[in-house]
Amino acid sequence: MLNLSRQIAILGIALAAFIILLAPVPAFSQNCALCYTQAASSGSRMIQALKSGILVMIVPPTLGSIGMIFVVYKRRNQVRRTEQEETEEAENGQDQSGRDW
């Protein structure tokens, strides 16, 4: 069973996500007048180039972030130590890195 503070945190995250979904899309953009007029006055080839450029700017960082989260999740238990290991190292005179000074 979840403790009270964890339940409140989950509720807060859900509420924030709900508020973000209700916010209008233009509220998230700056709507630069120069960019808007340049895009509106350009031809169909330029608009397609802008769309392709947006994809090139968004997709690689997103995939990199997802990949990093996946690697961290898979290796999350490799660096954890038990209390017994820490006390054994302290008794043997070794520091956290395993070197004997």
How many helices? Answer: 4
Oligomeric state: single chain
Radius of gyration: 25 Å
Q: Helix fraction?
A: 55-70%
Low-pLDDT sequence parts: none
Net shape: elongated
Pattern of helices and strands? HHHH
> N-to-C terminal Cα separation, in Å?
45 Å
- Total E-strand runs: 0
Largest sheet: none
The computed structural class is mainly alpha
| Total domain count | 1
Mean pLDDT: 77
Instruction: Report the portion of residues in β strands.
Output: under 5%
Task: Please tell me about this protein's structure.
This protein has one domain (8-78). The two termini are 45 Å apart. The longest helix is centred in the middle third of the chain and has 31 residues, at 44-74. The protein is mainly α and 101 residues long. The mean pLDDT is 77. The radius of gyration is 25 Å and the shape is elongated. It has four helices and no strands. It has helices spanning 4-22, 33-41, 44-74, 83-92.
Outline of this structure?
This protein is mainly alpha-helical and 101 residues long. It has helices at residues 4-22, 33-41, 44-74, 83-92.
Q: Which features does this protein show?
A:
101 residues; elongated; single chain; mainly alpha; 4 helices; 68% helix
Topology:
Blueprint: H1 4-22, H2 33-41, H3 44-74, H4 83-92
